[in-house]
Specification:
This protein is an alpha/beta fold. It contains 14 helices and 15 strands. The structure holds NADP nicotinamide-adenine-dinucleotide phosphate.
Length: 419
């Protein structure tokens, strides 16, 4: 289709589907949204790193054709005040895979979060956050190397569905009267009211995606995290529907904890994935005290939100935690932190979160050699204590460098990794 401001690169091929690696060409067109605030600095540095890794890993046989698309302040400047132009959605639907920097949510004026809008309009139902420690990253825990999980958080339902009624409004009073008079519910006068929908459809597609990922990557377990002991028909149903998918659609490849002990004496048989569940509150403790027991984690929206940031903190915080929002027809990788506006254009911040989101994107494409090259060069750079300000203030003897200098150092280390 013809775009108003988006320029489709003349070299490069379109990705035509997401569920089959053969749909990924060697010269794919990948979309990027630069992002607001620190977005320009970290996107510039990260693109240099991704391109260098692909070039060094494949010697020109593979190459990314970058296509800039617009959202946030840059879009508002180009599209007459429109922060989220329709053609951005169109381009993501057409080209399927993209990566984005952080976006400001303008305060006031009835703006919805641009990030939430992107997820909902494109139905990016799985928020995927791999959390693992890289050698040298400052961490508040003693053994961060034991944390290596991938969180699949539901992205479209739960209290994020936006079904809320402010106390004192006619809608609230109507709903309150219905709940009290028709259903016998009891709650204080003047309560704000919110509805938490969790569906079989939304839950099952998430669990399916998590199990497929676990199978593809040789992961050992999938843990369903929920608060079903209290919220039986939402969180409890989430747990039951997840088990249903495992049993009915992946029965040959999964076993439950009961089967593990009754039939296999506690030893996971080769080629099987253990499906288990944990109550949300104790899961936070487990992730601190026994992180080795967890691998892929599946959670509803709100609990998944809390858990993702808490686990990320164990390996260095959201400053380097990568993420992606993935649906059936679009995958959008993204930095998990915000726009840190006070650092805009200072070439100062850590590009790690965006850079590792790009590593996820390379893995998604099946370009594992390039992804591994970045991870290993990153560890070498940290071994040399060459870091941005945020890590420098937590490390003794560190050399503080700019965002662009960090990228240069990391790219330089790729040759040493390959040697
Ligand atoms: P933030 O932008 O994440 O920044 C909070 C603090 O985190 C920064 O001041 C900085 O800490 C640290 N930080 C963030 N990114 C860093 C990086 N790359 N390297 C090193 N340190 C980093 O959160 P915020 O100030 O609450 O939000 C600002 C704006 O971002 C808001 O408009 C919000 O809506 C938006 N936001 C967007 C997204 C998204 O696009 N996904 C996510 C969250 C927030 P120090 O001050 O200690 O140096």
């Amino acid at each position: 289709m013809a775009y108003q401001h988006i320029v489709v690169p003349s070299e490069g091929e379109k990705i035509t589907c997401l569920d089959d690696r053969s749909c990924f060409p060697d010269h794919p067109i990948l979309a990027f949204i630069e992002g607001d605030g620190i977005g320009a600095d970290i996107m510039r540095a990260s693109k240099r790193i991704w391109d260098a890794a692909v070039e060094k890993a494949y010697g020109g046989q593979r190459k990314i054709a970058w296509m800039e698309i617009y959202a946030g302040e840059k879009a508002a400047g180009l599209y007459g005040g429109d922060y989220m132009p329709e053609e951005t959605f169109e381009a993501l639907r057409e080209f399927k895979v993209g990566i984005k920097g952080p976006l400001t949510t303008p305060v006031g004026g009835g703006f919805r979060s641009l990030n939430v809008t992107l997820r909902q309009v494109l139905d990016l139902y799985a928020c995927v956050r791999p959390v693992q420690w890289y050698r040298g990253v400052p961490s508040p825990v003693r053994e961060p190397q034991n944390v290596n999980v991938v969180i699949y958080r539901e992205n479209t339902e739960d209290v994020y569905a936006g079904i809320e009624y402010q106390a004192g409004t006619p809608e609230n009073e109507k709903l309150a009267a219905f709940l009290r008079d028709e259903l016998g519910a009891k709650f204080f006068e003047g309560s704000g009211l919110g509805i938490k929908p969790i569906s079989a459809f939304g839950t099952k597609r998430l669990m399916r995606a998590a199990l497929r990922y676990a199978l593809e990557r040789g992961r050992k377990s999938v843990t369903i995290v929920h608060k079903g002991n209290i919220q039986k028909f939402t969180e409890g149903a989430f747990r039951n529907w997840c088990y249903e998918v495992a049993r009915e659609e992946f029965g040959d490849q999964t076993i439950t904890e009961d089967q593990l002990w009754d039939d296999y004496n506690g030893q996971l048989p080769e080629g099987k994935i253990l499906v288990k569940d944990r109550i949300a509150d104790i899961m936070f403790q487990h992730m601190l005290l026994r992180p080795k027991e967890f691998d892929v984690i599946v959670a509803p929206n709100l609990n998944g939100d809390y858990l993702s940031d808490a686990i990320a903190a164990e390996v260095g915080g959201v400053g380097i935690a990568p993420g992606a929002n993935i649906g059936d027809s679009v995958a959008l990788f993204e930095a998990t932190h915000g726009t840190a506006p006070k650092y805009t254009d200072l070439d100062k911040v850590n590009p790690g979160s965006l850079m590792f989101s790009g590593v996820m994107m390379l893995e998604f494409l099946g370009w594992q050699e390039a992804a591994d090259l970045i991870a290993r060069a990153y560890e070498r750079t940290l071994d040399q204590k060459t870091v941005t300000y945020d890590f420098a203030r937590q490390m003794d003897g560190a050399t503080e460098v700019r965002t662009s200098e960090f990228a240069t150092a990391l790219i330089g280390n790729m040759d040493a990794v390959l040697a």
